[in-house]
Amino acid sequence: MLIVFGLGNNEEKYLNTKHNIGRKIVENWANMFEHTGFKRKNGFIAARLDSLSVPVYFVYPTRYMNTSGEALSDFARFFKVDKSETHLLVLQDDSDQKEGCWKLVQGGRSAGHKGIDSIHKHILGIEVDPNNLWRVKIGIRPEQNSEKSLTFVLKRFSLIDDKTISKLSDLCLKQTINMVKDDWSKVQNIINTEKVA
Predict the structure, then answer these.
(1) What is the pLDDT of residue 127?
(2) 111: helix, coil or strand?
(3) Is 87 one of the catalytic residues?
(4) How many CA atoms are closer than 13 Å to the CA of 58, on its beta-carbon side?
(5) Which residues are CB-contacts of 41 (< 8 A; sequence separation ≥ 6)?
(6) What is the pLDDT of residues 99-119, one digit of tens each?
(7) How would CATH label the architecture of 2-193?
């Protein structure tokens, strides 16, 4: 099983802000496939893709960012996730990287990201081996902004963010097969060498 989890806040006023870029890419990526349709459950919204060799779930929380791990726990209980056969890919905003940049990493520390802190807190409970946690960290910092992230994280998507959403969604789509095959070194090499033109 591959779980693709997009971090974000579910309130209407946050949907098109930089903090929700992970969720937006997950929605775009999922909609490039013929899936079961996004369905709301307790704590999360998910769509299932059955056309590959293993099930792929595209998921995002219906709560706030800092309770993302609880939403994953709800998902894992509902679908009876098998720890030994599950990979988790989290897409998150990264206020340390510039707009148009991204990086795929295995595990790693949260760097103060509350959504990632919550996932780290719950990961053993959601029956996913920490070694099977991968993250796409998506840059949202404007080029000339050296201030604290609070000054821009809840701003609406910029033109560069829009290009990032489009290109990274397409790039992830093309790498879905390699993710399902557990060829993460190949996925990492390809994703980390591509950037917004």
Answers:
(1) 65
(2) coil
(3) no
(4) 26
(5) 74, 75, 78
(6) 999 999 998 888 889 999 999
(7) 3-Layer(aba) Sandwich (3.40)
